[in-house]
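Weekly puzzle thread! Below is a chain. First person to post its structure in token form gets bragging rights.
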Amino acid sequence: MKNISKSFFLIIGLALITSCTSTKKIQKNMNSNSYSMAYIMDSKISNSKDSISVSIDTILFNPNIMSDTTKIKREKGWFLPLVLVYVWNSQNKCIQGKSMIEEDIPSFFKTSLIREINRSGNFHTDTLNKSDYSLELSIDEIKTEGPYVSSGFFYFALYVYGYSYSDRAGPAISNLKVSYKLKKGDQIIHSNSFCSEKGTEQINKRYTNTKILQQDYAVSMVEATSYNFKNTIELIVTDLNTYFNKQY
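Winning reply:
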């Protein structure tokens, strides 16, 4: 009888340890690697370039709007011990940090914008800062967050026991807001701001290793952030094309 009792508590302990994923473990795994935003050049190429050139003067980015590392916050959870049955559900929020992204964010924004202007802009970029026109850009909001849920159950009856658990990640929502000012000398002659939002798919297929699930979730968050940068950059270039076309 004593051996049965010991086995019973040992099984419960093992089941709970291997099933309910801790916030510290999720946070560690999601900060273990960084992933490239990899701007994809697939916009329509501009075949007519005029003589206007624009230099990119400043990229404003307040580092406090995004934490250095990805954070996991416990939102709610419960553990329900019944007679010979244990059920649990842990709900967390994953908040993307800079550590998840391989590139330096302002540098990525600037480089990608220059490449996009050279591809789809009806004007040129001036890398020597000799142009009368300059752009001052600001990353006003950058945020990607979503749920991570760990749940399962354990049962035991005499010599029969079993347990099942699953972790689900997402869908995460990524938001980006950027603004810019077009200057001629010191005078602001045009300005605008753009927002972009992208959602990820929920990852709910069964993983034998939850670390891989958490890393896949991180990848999907970075992909969503990359999409937002691409979307807003294309909107900026289109807006500038329209402005210059009206002026000249």
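Puzzle host: Confirmed. Bonus trivia for everyone else. The CA atoms of residues 34 and 176 lie 19 Å apart.
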